[in-house]
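Case study B.
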Amino acid sequence: MSSIETLFLIFISTGFAVGFGHCVGMCGPIVVSFSLHLESKRVLISNLLYHSGRIMTYAVLGGVVGITGSFTRVTAGIAILQKAVMIFTGLIIVVMGLSMGGWISLGRIFGDHYNPGGIITRGFGKMSGVRSTAAYLPLGLLLGLLPCGPVYTALIAAARAGMEIQTPFKAFLSGMGLMVSFGLGTIPSLLLVAGLTDMKWLRSREVIYKIGSVLMIAVGIYFAIKGIQY
Amino acid sequence: MPNAFLARMARPASMVMAWMVLFAATAETVSIQAAETDRPVMVNCDVQNTACRQEISGTEVTFDISPKPVKAMTDLRFRITLTGGQPKALSYIDLGMPGMKMGPNQVSLQNMGAGVYEGVGIIVRCPSGKRLWKAAVVLPGIGIAEFIFDVIY
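Model:
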């Protein structure tokens, strides 16, 4: 087995370990908030689309750090964007929590002048999975930019691997491949969390749903505050 | 009878398990607070101001990072100085956060001579805001020296 194949295995197993040790805590709230909004039959496909989008973003970042061999330059370039994505994610979770708890409809959030056909409302509607499962792919693409310690660590390793490859194109492909491996490894833990939200008894209990909504709102506020502080 | 008992217990058991996972999704907030409380006890290295020392198996290990202040997301030079013993194989530093898995982040150390070992690495920024980091200096044949310190974000 070549050294790059060994690296792929290391990255996928690292993703798997980090998934259960880190992602469930940090990204679990996002997956929970999106999944609870979905009809049971669409939970799996929506989550797979979301993770596909997230991994595509990792792949692009991996390719860029692979070809440049510099982690710090790339992350410095996207820092502002990451901050914005984190705040945005927090706000989405809060909105979904309020909506799921039945305290406010997506329409009422936008005031008395709520326009069901408006761009913002349509956007939230799609993101909440009410209308379009396909919206989870671009959502994953965007949220793949969320600041994340283990993703950073994987990118450092991808940059180091890229530095040892002579051809820029091969370095790009290597970075992409390594980050795809890492991302694939993180999927099982997050699918497990999504799967638990799909349990029928959970969805049928109003009190549990309300508690989940409160947790979502708290986590959303936490994300937004951390995003502002980032 | 045992089957009926298991069937009766399955739902509450699955409910408890599911809630454990769902609550784990927000547990980071709680653990961050706990870590803040633990901070004065856990930190054993004021690397922002000075080099840190520990003795392992009769060898004094001096650990330092430059440039100062030590900031996350920048290239950092890690310097280990050994007095009294030398490692039997390649040494490295494992960077991580106490109580939070961040993935393997290792800094390979090169022998610069006269007991000095150096390597370049990056401490990543955790979006949770936690600033407590741990550098486990792995010295084959000597042992592992753990330095816990704060970084600046």
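The CA atoms of residues 63 and 172 of chain A lie 4 Å apart. The remaining cases will be described in the next quarterly update.
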